[in-house]
Design a protein that fits this description.
- The chain has helices spanning 13-24, 43-50, 66-80, 96-101, 125-134, 169-193, and strands at residues 2-8, 30-37, 55-57, 84-87, 106-110, 138-145, 155-162, 197-199, 205-207.
- The strands form two sheets. Strands 3-2-1-4-5-6-7 form a seven-stranded mixed beta sheet, with helices on both faces. A two-stranded antiparallel sheet has the order 8-9.
- It starts with a strand and ends with a strand.
- The chain contains six helices and nine strands; from the N terminus they run βαβαβαβαβαββαββ.
- Strand 4 (84-87), helix 4 and strand 5 form a beta-alpha-beta unit.
- Helix 1 crosses helix 6 (169-193).
- The protein binds glycinamide ribonucleotide.
- Residues 8, 10-14, 44, 88-89, 109-111, 123-124, 127, 177, 181 line the site of glycinamide ribonucleotide.
Amino acid sequence: MLRVAVCVSGGGTNLQAIIDALRSGTIENAQIVRVISNNKNAYALERAKAAGIEGVCVSPKEYATRALFNEALLACLKEAAPDLIVLAGFMVAVPSCVIEAFRDKIINIHPALIPSFCGKGYYGLHVHEKVLQRGAKVTGATVHFVDEDLDHGPILLQKAVEVREGDTPEVLQRRVMEEAEWILLPRAISLIAQDRVTIDDNRITHIKES
Ligand code: GAR
């Protein structure tokens, strides 16, 4: 059974998609062992509670320095002993101590087609604002492994989503979530739980046929 820790910051619709996929059996052989939020008011924590999953808040506001927060986050993750850490709308730069301790065991969902519209400043609604400002006609979502560089690690899954005339950032965000994110993230966890994902020496992922 794959032990999954999910890190969140806000509404938690991606967390909900994972919970629903576990319930329906779309993801087999996995369980969420802990939900960690950097924000005590995150609605995602309510979703965890409603699903009977332990929710823990580790907020940078409660630590004197960033280094102390990083240590606390690492300790909280280690305590949960996860096989996989899922960043589901986690708006914190993952500290290198966490990346080292869980090398190639952390995945992130990004609301655009990496390597477009990613990196510093590209998070949440801002991503969709920038897609619209640039006039891109296609966007989407990406699930990738996390390494030391922001939005950079090996790409696992991607799905394109159409940008439509008259879209607002909010409308586009919703379409990207519905058509891509809520499908891709559970699928990624399912593939990893089935042990079908490998990363080669060139840092390219491969998915084994089932
Ligand atoms: C999602 O769109 C996710 O892709 C994005 O934040 C949103 C969180 O929504 N993540 C990033 O921008 C990370 N760079 P949720 O809390 O409802 O899942």
